[in-house]
């Protein structure tokens, strides 16, 4: 099992450019999450999908959109990148839904720089 | 709102010694807690979890203690090794909640 995979690992964008961060999990988990991590700060939830076909806003959703493509895949899109979106982005998944406790498994992260 | 916090942002420990990382939580409804380890350049990795019906849980070289009276959680790492150097996060959850709340993390440095 690969667990949670993310692509790309690194990305540099110019202000105003768009891109999609990809995430996939092979653990048959119901729930998937996107977080951002900034220096000296904890993980902040951007969006999550509690089950296939549903998505909900987290703590910091502005400037982002998501798509739960199927049970395995959950993508994060930046339509018009801004320097404030420079961060490390983590995708996570959990069995929440079939198990009511929320142990989350994380991907390796995407390091995004917006110039 | 409710939050999970850590007492110390950094901790340095001599190799071979035991280390204790602390975490305070404020949501009295929280009944599930997780410790994550994050090495430089990597994603958070699950270490150990504990449910509120337990006071203590042991893993390999790690022990988590939960004191519900004072809403305090600790992670003890025995006989620390250089590979234990990382940032450690606690996270809280409550039954039926689809989200975790994370603390800001404690950086543990092992001194050779």
Key terms:
heterodimer, A: 115 residues, 4-stranded antiparallel β-sheet, 11 strands, 49% strand, globular, B: 112 residues, mainly beta, 6-stranded mixed β-sheet, 53% strand
Briefly, what is this?
The complex is a heterodimer of chains A (115) and B (112). By secondary structure, chain A is mainly beta.
Description of the structure:
The complex is a heterodimer of chains A (115) and B (112). Chain A has 115 residues and is mostly beta strands. Helices cover 0% and strands 49% of the residues of chain A. Chain A has no helices and eleven strands. In chain A, strands 2, 4, 5, 6, 9, 10 and 11 form a seven-stranded mixed sheet that branches. In chain A, a hairpin with a 5-residue loop joins strand 7 and strand 8 (74-78). Chain B has 112 residues and is mainly β. Chain B is 0% helix and 53% strand. Chain B has no helices and eleven strands. Chain B has strands at 4-5, 10-14, 19-25, 32-38, 45-51, 56-58, 62-67, 72-77, 86-93, 101-102, 106-111. In chain B, strands 2, 4, 5, 9, 10 and 11 form a six-stranded mixed sheet that branches. Chain B has a five-stranded antiparallel sheet with strand order 1-3-8-7-6, with no helix packed on it. In chain B, a hairpin with a 6-residue loop joins strand 4 (32-38) and strand 5 (45-51). The radius of gyration of chain B is 13 Å and the shape is globular. The interface between A and B is medium-sized, with 24 and 24 residues.
């Amino acid at each position: 099992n690969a667990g949670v995979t993310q692509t790309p690992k690194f990305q540099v964008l110019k202000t105003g450019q768009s891109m999609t961060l990809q995430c996939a999990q092979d653990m048959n988990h119901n729930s998937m999450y996107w977080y951002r991590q900034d220096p000296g700060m904890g993980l902040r939830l951007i969006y999550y999908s509690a089950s296939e076909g549903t998505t909900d806003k987290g703590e910091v959703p502005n400037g982002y959109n998501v798509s739960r493509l199927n049970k395995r895949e959950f993508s994060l899109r930046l339509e018009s990148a801004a320097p404030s979106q420079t961060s490390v982005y983590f995708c996570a998944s959990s069995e929440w839904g079939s198990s009511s406790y929320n142990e989350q498994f994380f991907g390796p992260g995407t390091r995004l720089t917006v110039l | 709102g409710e939050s999970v916090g850590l007492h110390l942002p950094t901790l340095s420990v001599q190799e071979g010694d035991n280390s204790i990382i602390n975490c305070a939580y404020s949501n009295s409804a929280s009944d599930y807690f997780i410790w994550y380890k994050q090495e430089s350049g990597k994603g958070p990795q699950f270490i150990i979890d504990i449910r509120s019906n337990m006071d203590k849980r042991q893993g390999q070289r790690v022990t988590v203690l939960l004191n519900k009276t004072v809403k305090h959680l600790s992670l003890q790492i025995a006989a620390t090794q250089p590979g234990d150097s990382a940032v450690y996060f606690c996270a809280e959850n409550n039954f039926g909640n689809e989200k975790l709340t994370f603390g800001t993390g404690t950086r543990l440095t092992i001194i050779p």
